[in-house]
Amino acid sequence: MSSNLHPMLNVAIKAARAAGALINRAALDVESVRVAQKQVNDFVTEVDQASERVIIETLLGAYPQHAILAEESGSEHGSRNSDYVWIIDPLDGTTNFIHGFPVYCVSIALAYKGKIEHAVVYDPSRNDLFTATRGRGAFLNERRIRVSKRTQLKDCLISTGFPFRRGDNFKQYMQMLGDVMQRTAGVRRPGAAALDLAYVAAGFADGFFESGLSIWDVAAGSLLVTEAGGLVGNFTGEADFLEQKECLAANPRIYGALIPVIGKYSKFASAGEKAEVRQSLDAAAEPAEAEGPDGDAE
Helix (H, G, I), strand (E, B), or coil: what is residue 143? Predict the structure, then answer.
């Protein structure tokens, strides 16, 4: 731990590394990890739970009066009335982990009176540690990071996450994805939103968008992005997004370019924009004219 870092950030790093060591040990024999299903395509493992326990024990060991908001245990630990709230995703990318696909991370953020002040995203498989403190910049393994400098959408690599829960509007998402894909150099779907945001902060990706995310998916990553010089908000560009289940992040120029493309798919879009999207979806759903054997419409 660095003596130059804020004490609270140092404790978060200690907690993330302890969880990462546990995750790495489990990854050596991932076939033996017990898996339960929270809902369709939404998994939790004994590793998520053990990782969360060690994080909470480390944080409350140092700050017993702080509150906890964790993915698996909610707010049952810590002091519920504290202005300090630790927001924890003990294993973001669980589906990747249980398949042995090495894209997952630990995400820990500290909010004070509703504002994210400290952030850690730790990738245990690569030993990559992303950290940020409000006003002090963002770092990868103690090296300062900045968002990319690309200015045109056509040159950009964008990351995203696909909807996978029952009730998600898959058709609308695919239309939004198509709109983005046609305007960029490439779209990737790594499967761990906290790491996606960290990669935007580091300039590895130029932007990121996803719907259906919870606060523990985006809290730490959002501070990394802003401290690296980027912007983060909902699909219409509003900065108060943490609990809105929409996240858009990018360098400032690309952020501005993405809003007109995906803003109309936001739940906060205007009535006219929503009608336009519905009409487009309805048109796409209409059966095409039957084609003859030579490919011409009959």
Answer: strand
161's tokens? 């996450």
Q: According to DSSP H, which parts of 63-169 are helical?
A: 94-98
CATH topology of domain 7-145: Fructose-1,6-Bisphosphatase; Chain A, domain 1 (3.30.540)
Instruction: Return the bridge partners of 144, or none.
Output: 139
CATH class of the domain defined by 153-285? alpha beta
Question: Are the CB atoms for 91 and 43 separated by under 8 Å?
Answer: no
User: What pLDDT is recorded for position 39?
Assistant: 56
Parse the chain into domains and list their residue ranges: 7-145, 153-285
Q: 151-155 long-range CB contacts below 8 Å, 24 or more apart?
A: 151/253, 151/254, 152/257, 153/183, 153/184, 153/254, 153/257, 153/258, 153/261, 154/183, 154/184, 154/185, 155/185, 155/206
Q: At 39, which amino acid appears?
A: Q
Q: Tally Cβ neighbours within 10 Å of residue 114.
A: 9
- Gap between the terminal Cα atoms of the chain: 72
Mean pLDDT of the chain: 90
The per-residue pLDDT for range 136-174, each reduced to its tens digit, is: 999 999 999 999 999 999 999 999 998 666 666 788 889
C-alpha to C-alpha distance for 237 and 232, rounded to whole angstroms:
8
Beta bridge partners of 70: 74, 88
Write out pLDDT tens, residues 34-85.
776 655 445 667 888 999 999 999 999 999 999 999 998 888 898 989 999 9
Can you say whether the dihedral through the CA atoms of 91, 92, 96, 101 is positive or negative? Answer: negative
- Model confidence pLDDT, tens digit, residues 109-119: 999 999 999 99
